[in-house]
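Attaching the record inline, Q. Sequence:
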Amino acid sequence: MILINFKTYPQAIGPNALKLTKSLEEVAKGFAKVVVGFAPPSLELAEVAAHSKSPIWAQHTDPAREGQYTGYLSPDDAKAAGAVGTFLNHSEHPLDLETIQRTADLAKKTGLKTLIFARDPEKVAEFVKLSPDFIAYEPPELIGGDISVTSAKPEIIGEAVKAAGNTPLLIGAGVHEKTDITKALELGAIGAIVSSAVVTAPNPQEIFTNLLSGF
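Structure, as predicted:
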C-alpha cells in the first residue's frame, strides 16, 4: 500500500490536484497488486474523488458533525465528498489524544477509515488502543528531507511494527526511492506514505514508478 500526500504544494493545488492524480494513476495501472491512494488538499477533495477510481483520503478531519460547525471539516463532509478515510495527527497538524479519539470515533460512525500518525514506537503503542485502521510511523525530523526513515532509523521501524501488533503500519519521512519501500516491507511495514519526493519532482511519474517497483 502506498499513499501520496499532496499537502498544499503548488504542484497539487487547484486544477493541479486532479491533473497529478490522473498522471499517477496511469503509472499505478502497471502495479495492480499495490493499493494506491491519494490525499489531495481539502478544497480539491471532492473534485479529485469524483474523477478518480483510486482511494482518496482526507488530509485531516475535525471532531464535528453535520450542522453548526463553521470552518470545520467534518468526517461526514469528507465522506460525502468521496473520501474513503482520514489522516489524523500528522506532525504538521498535531492533535491531543482526546481530539484524536473523538475524531476517530466520529469517522468510524461515518464509515471513514482512520490512519493515525505516530512520531515514535511509544506513540504507536498508545494509538493502537484507539483501534485505527492504519498507523503511520513518521519521525518528524526526517519529513521532507533527503534521508529516509529506512536508512536513518531502520531498527525503530521494527519496534514500531511490533508496537502496532495487528494494526497495519505504514512508514513515512524521507521516502524517495525503491530501496526505501523494499526495506520497509522487509521490516514488517505494509507500505509507505510519500509526499514531496513525488509531488514536487520534475517528473512525478518517474519517481512513482521507481517507488512502486519496490513492491
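DSSP finds ten helices and eight strands in the chain. The chain has one domain: 2-212.

More tomorrow.
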